[in-house]
Design a protein that fits this description.
Length: 343
């Protein structure tokens, strides 16, 4: 059996999800008449506690539309330095919104209030103004770390005091909510806009929803069309999203438990080091003494796929295709790899 831990984006739609997709009523969403897309957008907005939602093809597009609507070209935006929007969106903030990216150092994805404050600028004859603060929760490069709700509130206070808006890259916000045992709105209430992904641990094949105030989403719809993200009978995809929201949220807790079990098992293997206390959602970050490429190649020979996240770091992501047996196979693959590569 192949155990694919490269990402939670690899999940295949379940038979029940496919049935929901096949029976969804459809229309032309660009003309505004796909009932299933509308249903998903209202469901998502209600879940996030926002006025409106917009179904978009990807997390990247949702984030980038948000930048375009919040900012004007030349404005400055604050991001935590390891943010996905900075690292993995193809330089899009510079290309589409045309904004200046200002990064804030972070520890486990957490920015200090002082570091944020020290980077805030008001626009004047020389200096671009910081108009937006972006937050990522859970934080990808920080190993699925959670930004706690009380800190999210403090971020919002600083932003408001400085006439800045806040955007949450909440690709995996449901992982944070389930891990905290708190309603997702506890995390989303302190941001103006949030983008969350259906196509990651929630198990839908495609799509994200950008949520925020109604006027913001109206403008976002225009930008989505401009970017080529207006889809037609997209209710077939939205139906998978509705199914995911209704059935796949609570089960994320299983992924979190298995991530801890995987981390504990791997911690026993020579040549690997794991901060087990940092495993709080569905990611396990493994640091390797030997170059990570040796490990990734060796485990792949034993049917385990993973992505290197640095020269000595591999990321393992749990999702609903990873059961206890897959966790055991992964630990065995690493153990065998250790002896093969002389770790
Ligand atoms: N992340 C992917 C890769 O791009 C790294 C992954 O496998 O984790 N925000 C966050 C926090 C993300 O992790 C991702 C995807 C996105 C946005 C972008 O979503 P998509 O891939 O739908 O554009």
């Amino acid at each position: 059996m192949v155990v694919d831990l490269r990402s939670d984006t690899v999940t295949q739609p379940s038979a029940e999800m496919i049935r929901a997709m096949a029976s969804a009523p459809l229309g032309d969403d660009v003309l505004g008449d796909d009932p299933t897309v509308k249903e998903l957008e209202s469901l998502a907005a209600a879940a996030m506690g926002k006025e409106a939602g917009l179904f978009v093809p990807s997390g990247t597009m949702g984030n980038q539309i948000a930048l375009c609507v919040h900012c004007r070209p030349g404005d400055a935006v604050l991001f935590e330095e390891q943010a996905h929007m900075v690292w993995y969106e193809g330089g899009a903030p510079a290309v589409f919104a045309g904004v200046l990216t200002k990064t804030v150092p972070g520890t486990n994805g957490i920015m200090s209030l002082a570091d944020i404050e020290s980077r805030i600028t008001r626009r004047n004859y020389h200096t671009p103004g910081t108009v937006l603060l972006c937050i990522e929760n859970t934080h990808n490069r920080a190993g699925g770390a959670i930004v706690p709700p009380d800190l999210m509130e403090k971020y919002q206070t600083i932003a408001t005091e400085n006439a800045m808006a806040t955007h949450l890259d909440g690709a995996r916000i449901f992982n944070a909510s389930v891990a905290l045992g708190a309603p997702v709105q506890k995390l989303t209430k302190s941001v103006d806009t949030v983008n969350f992904c259906l196509s990651k641990a929630l198990g839908a094949p495609v799509g994200s929803v950008l949520c925020g105030p109604a006027a913001f989403i109206e403008e976002a719809k225009y930008v989505r069309k401009r970017m080529g993200g207006g889809m037609r009978q997209s209710g077939i995809l939205a139906a998978a999203g509705i199914y995911a929201l209704e059935h796949n949220v609570d089960r994320l807790a299983e992924d979190h438990l298995r991530a801890k079990a995987l981390g504990a098992g791997l911690a026993e293997i020579p040549g690997l080091s794991i901060q087990q206390e940092d495993i709080v959602t569905n990611f396990v970050m493994v640091d390797t003494v030997l170059p990570v490429t040796l490990w990734v190649e060796a485990i792949s020979r034993h049917g385990v796929k993973a992505i290197a996240f640095g020269p000595h770091r591999v990321r393992l992501v749990l999702h609903y295709h990873i059961d206890d047996q897959a966790v055991a196979q992964c630990i065995d693959a690493f153990r065998t790899a250790a002896s093969e590569i002389g770790a």
